[in-house]
Amino acid sequence: MSSTVADALDHDEEHGPEKGIGRWLFATNHKDIGTMYLIFSLTMFFIGGAMAMVIRSELAIPGLQFVHPEFFNSMTTMHALIMVFGAVMPAFVGLANWMIPLMIGAPDMALPRMNNWSFWILPVAFGILLSTLFMPGGAPAGGWTMYPPLILQTGDAFPFLIFSVHLMGISSIMGAINVIVTIINMRAPDMTLLKMPMFVWTWLITAYLLIAVMPVLAGAVTMLLTDQFFGTSFFLAAGGGDPVMFQHIFWFFGHPEVYIMILPAFGVVSEIIPTFARKPLFGHDSMVYAASCIAFLSFIVWAHHMFTVGMPLTGQLFFMFATMLIAVPTGVKVFNWVATMWRGSMTFETPMLFSLAFVFLFTIGGFSGLMLAAAPADIQYHDTYFVVAHFHYVLVPGSVFAIMAGAYYWLPKWTGHMYSERLGKLHFWTSTIFVNVTFFPMHFLGLAGMPRRIPDYSTQFTDFNTIASIGAIGFGVSQLIFVAVLLTAYKGSKATDRVWEGTRGLEWTVPSPAPYHTFETPPKARIASEVFE
Amino acid sequence: MIRKAFLSVLALGLSAAANAEWALNMPKGITDLSLETYNIHMMIFWWCVAIGVVVFGVMIVSLIKHRKSKGVKPATFSHSTTAEVIWTVIPVVILMLIAIPVAETMVKLEDSRNPDLSIVVTAYQWKWHYKYQDEDIAFYSSLSQPSLEARRLQSGVDPSSVENYLLDVDRPVVVPRDAKVRLLITSNDVVHSWYVPDLAIKKDAIPGIVNETWFKATEVGTYRGQCTELCGKDHGYMPIVVEVVEPDAYLAWVDSRKEGAPRVASTQQ
Prior knowledge:
The complex is a heterodimer.
Chain A: H1 2-13, H2 22-25, H3 30-58, H4 69-104, H5 112-131, H6 157-185, H7 198-229, H8 243-277, H9 284-297, H10 313-325, H11 327-341, H12 350-373, H13 375-381, H14 385-415, H15 421-447, H16 462-487, H17 525-531
Chain B: H1 2-18, H2 32-65, H3 81-109, E1 117-124, E2 127-132, E3 137-141, H4 145-150, E4 173-176, E5 181-187, E6 192-196, E7 201-205, E8 211-215, E9 221-227, E10 239-245, H5 247-258
Parallel strand pairs in B: 1-5, 4-10
Antiparallel strand pairs in B: 1-2, 2-3, 5-8, 6-7, 6-9, 9-10
Helix pairs in contact in B: 2-3
């Protein structure tokens, strides 16, 4: 018995990556799976981006030039589904896979085989979703919100849409379980909960949100499926059902979902700003409480997406006040980031630039969020381009910039080489300029009354649409620079273990590139801070 | 892609010359409540500007002064309960200052009692149907012919040559000035939404549910809006036109409708 154990240990010491495709197909290593998540996410980012290019090309000038309205609607629907479930969420799961074990001193994720499964479901789910583009009746065109009865008019794509959403949900739930189990059980022995890095904290909260709401989405789409094929009438008025009930259920998922996409971004930025300000994160514990508050409030604000559906006055007032409350913890986060910068000793490498742009532009998205919270004003803004501007400000220079910042920040740890700072800065400046050229004019379009999800518009909306389209194409092209950064990532100088001057935390105690297996014996979190003092 | 970008730049140049009318802000509208809505919008906007000036101001000062290249040694402070309390309490106070007037307007918006006139609005894919409840008047209202021809894919018609492109209908809704008009909104198929910016009204048309909203227009004129809930392929092609007329002109219009006048009413009175 004891010799078997010894054999097993010997074997483990020599264990490196498998050769060939098997390394990826049967991957159980958190670093390999993290890499696959990130590559998958980038691929989806470009596919969803190509759809955005179709949308903005059609909208560049009034009149229909390129596509039919049905296909336009498919593009807006698929763009949203792919960006939300295919690009942003897997990117954060990829970062979590790579970094959480390194940050908490764990040898791997707690459930490596489930980790493999939760990744490999995704290419299948999106393969199915993308295949609907070639089906009779076209891809889903009822909006990513899938409101019935419209979504029930989808052609052959309908059951495939539902199935792919189910798969995405299963993948997310398994990913979330893995994150929670890893964080709760596998921290370095002296890392108490409140000593955890902010990225780990925000991911822990995010994972709970995922487990809470993904089954709700699954339930909602399953009811759509039975309404369509099995004669139920959950959402069909003719059979005594209620179309508005779907909207309530959907947004009970949908609002926590937006925090699922932004909380890990808060975590990434909270890692990066202290590093480049060479000063500890201001108010670590209050940041944790703020993130928890946001997560709690996200469950009681869903109907602010529905101020025009005809709710009772008291209901509207409740959701309005609850929504406004979210501004408080969000404000605390922004103020804490600014206080972290204050009297620091800042340098402006690419990760810091993306993080600073995140703080500025996410705050602008937060401001328009506060405006949208006011129900009477929301009646004017709702379903116009003002909303499109708002959520793209929080998602593109919000979530996506944070993902970019994280990628640049940790890339030397992953590859062992410094990326090209010159290309990185070029990527940053072009992205930041074009993202504003794209989305800022949309505020004006919305205030002037241009509805969202229309393929063509009245001529008074021409100017800002043209500007937005130019910006969008510029933004799309700018992202190719990021690919260039990745392709040349192995050419840079060797990265040190610590990579950046101001880093703290366990992930910077391992060599760069991080070895295939790390922390096979638990480290002391305390040691990390002592090394770096 | 380069060709498209070039076309876009060209189009921008042309349209900027042709169309100098850049709407930057929400319309003040023509009802008391649309003005209140506008004022709420501006109030919150200015609060945001004020907060932005403070937060971004501090950040920019820090970005300029606290650089390593200036030889700054980093401070070591990492928390301050006083600061946390201050920047929690101040936003709460600001939010209360915002919430109270907003709630007052909200109460008024929902008070559709004692209307002078009720119109049942039924949405279809992709047109509107209006039925005046106390009169024998009912008609469909859909996109007008010139827009219909110009909207087709590569129609060859320049949209700017069509008057009120995509915002004109064959039969507008006609309502009297200074009358409280109640709309009872429902749908025959999927969810739509009835939206006219100048009236500050947007209400979803939902099958199986009759929603209620109201407005009291204070100025005569023609006001345009669109469906604002995705309702299928022609979602972008079901505009709304409301004509507000003097009360006696409204009565004359009602009479003309009753005497079996032509089903296609002119948009001109």
